Structure formats: C-alpha cells, structure tokens
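Hi U.,

Before I forget, here's the chain from the pilot set. I'm dumping it here mostly so it's searchable later in email.
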Amino acid sequence: ASDNLKYFTSANQFTTSRATRIDEMIRDLVKKGKKITVEDNIDIQKDTLDVLARELTPIMVDRTYDAFKKGYNLTVSEEKLTSLLKNLTGWDYKTGKENIPATIFNVWERFFIRKMIRNIGLSEQDIKSMIINAKFDHFLYRNLLTWGKTIPKEQDQWCRNDENQGLTDPCLYNLVKSLEEAYSYLEKALGEDLEEWQWGRIHRMEYPHATFSQTPLKPLYHRSIPSQGNGRTVDVARMRMETDNFGGVWSPNLKMVTSMKEGEKSYFIIDTGVSESMFSEHYDDMMRMVEDGKYLEINESPKNDWKDVLYLKFKK
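Structure:
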C-alpha cells in the first residue's frame, strides 16, 4: 500500500511477505505452462520460504563480518560466530521443522529486534507494543534494506541503546551482539552441536485452552506440536517477539482447497480437532496430521466408519 493513504485501510492487515510468496509461486507455475491443480494449491499452503529473510540475510551476514573488524569485546569466540554465518550462507530460506539455518536466523532476528528503537523516547510498554505487531516488519526491513554495502549514519538513531551509547557504529554492534546472544541461547537450549539445532525443537505451535491452560489442569487440556514456518511464511506460525519463547501463537487454523470440477477431490484440515471436549477422540485427532503435512479428503457422502458426524443434505 502507498505511504500516502488518507484512510487507514491497511491498519489491521499483516505483513505482505506471504502474499508476495504466493504470487511468486503462482507466477512460477504459469511460466512453466502448468495448469494449477488442487495439489499445487496444497503445496502453496504448506510453503515455508521466508522472502524477507531471503532479501536480508546476505546483508546482515556481510555487515556482521564488518562488525568483526571493529574488535568488539565479545564473550563468544569469532570462530563460533563465523560458523553460524557460514551456515546461513548456504540457506535456502525455508523454515521447515528440520531446518538449522532457520533456527539461527529467527533467534538472531529476535535478539536483534529487541535492541532497536530503544533510544527514541518510547516507554518499555510502547516498544513491546510495536515489536509484537506484524507491521513492525515493514518498518524494520525497509531500513535494513539500506544496509547494502555500508550502514547509513541516519540509521544510528534506530540502533542506539544503553549497550552502545559510546560507539560510532551502533548498528554493527547490535548485529554482532545479537548473534552472540543467539549462539549463547541456542547452546544452552539445544547443546553445542549445531546439527541438533533444528527449528522444530524450539519452535512449537501452542494450542492453549482458554481457561484450563492457566491452571494445574494444563497437562490435560493444553496441546503443542513441533512447527515449521514463522510469521512471514505462507504456512504461518507467528511468535511473540517480546519474549524468549519461540513457540508459535498464530497459525493457519483451517486449511482448505476446494475444486469446482465435478468428480475432482477437495481437501481440508483443522489444526487440532472438531470437538471442544477433552474426552472426545476428536479433541486433537487432526493435530498429528497437521504436523505431518496431511489433509483430509472432503467427501460427497459420509463414510461408513465416520463417528459423531452431523450430515446435512440440501434439497434443490
């Protein structure tokens, strides 16, 4: 949307990265001369490529190498931090559950974001309110895209905080310090072996019960599964950026692909189940299917083995 909107028509919309990726995949299929099928749409819904990370990771990596030259006093060795940067260099920018660069980038990004806009007169609550909002992505990345070869001096105002007040390059410091903090966090959470740093190990989609997840009955009602994606991927799994918890809080609760062609199959899936009762077998019976990327077929008539189904027929 234009920066000159008279009315706030996009005030409650999320980041455009998902739409950008969907458009990209559709154009790619059209370019190949392929007729887009139900199965292609399912693949689109399950896509985990982060288009903003694809644009910005090379910039962040290059500027962090510049930060090494500054000789900042770091508690993690440059060798260990370089191993993370090298891991990101070969990244395909997908954020699947087994993906290791996705873990490094998303954790690094989290610590980096929390160092921004801390010296421009906002209260702590205002800062938290801004960074948890998906639209903050637009502000942050629009600025980061200007860091191509060098960081413009006017960017210093967004990077200043209590840690870097006396430094001439606060943005460089924030980059390398955030990478150091990410390394320390992941080493503590997942161990020293980078091969164990799969995204799904710390990124779980949480399904709280509105009442009982806040009580000792939480183990009975609360559900969670390893998740893929982040807040910018088509298969969305946005996190709370103000915390150290990388669990997903927003997901595509209902996925559906419906064919209008007679005789062709249609599919859907819900991320937990169709029953509110913990005692029902349908409370969470779809959750593992979601974890495995599976869908249920939508049938024209009920199957014999269906249970607890209310089937409505509409007469012409």
